[in-house]
Amino acid sequence: QARLAESGGGLVQPGGSLRLSCAASGFDFRLFYMNWVRDVPGKGPEWVGGISIDGDHPRYRDDVKGRFTISRDDTKKMLYLQMTNLQPEDTALYYCSLVDGTRGQGTQVTVSP
Predict the structure, then answer these.
(1) I need a surface site. Which of 6, 28, 49, 106 has the fewest CB within 10 A?
(2) Beta strands in the chain (DSSP E)
(3) Are 33 and 24 in contact (CB under 8 A)?
(4) Do 34 and 96 form a contact (C-beta atoms < 8 A)?
(5) pLDDT digits (tens, 9 = 90+) for 68-87
(6) What is the C-alpha separation between 30 and 84, in angstroms, rounded?
(7) Long-range contacts, stretch 60-67, CB < 8 angstroms, 24+ apart
(8) For residues 1 and 80, what is the distance between their CA atoms, to the nearest angstrom?
(9) 85-111 tens-digit pLDDT
């Protein structure tokens, strides 16, 4: 049974940084495309970005390009989301997910002065 568990969220001021982690278990992590998604209050789920099995050429939504970086460590079965220059509109519940929709419970990111 595939399981995903996110961590690393918190309260940060505008312009700050956070690194989210996603621990995968129960499946062969190295064989799967992975996504980061966020639940924005009042707007619903937004795809943040994704990374392929080779880790090259991650893709991002336009408003996080240049600020967010997705990476993976297949030996540790870990997915990461490095977020810099965070803004209030980045406030959301962030979670990692498989293409089939399997997801973790998420980690809350709040950006506020």
Answers:
(1) 28
(2) 3-7, 10-12, 18-25, 34-40, 44-51, 59-60, 68-73, 78-83, 92-98, 107-111
(3) no
(4) yes
(5) 999 999 999 999 999 999 99
(6) 26
(7) 63/89, 64/90
(8) 21
(9) 999 999 999 999 999 999 999 999 999
Place of tokens 């064989």: 31
Strand partners, 108: 93
Residue with tokens 């399997």: 102
Q: Give the pLDDT confidence of 24-61 residue by residue, as tens digits.
A: 999 999 999 999 999 998 898 999 999 999 888 899 99
Whole-number Å distance between alpha carbons of 28 and 30: 6
Q: What is the pLDDT of residue 57?
A: 84
The Cα 102–Cα 113 span in angstroms is 33
Tokens 């062969």: give the residue: 28
* Residue found by looking up tokens 């996603």 in the block: 22
Amino acid, single-letter form, for residue 49: G
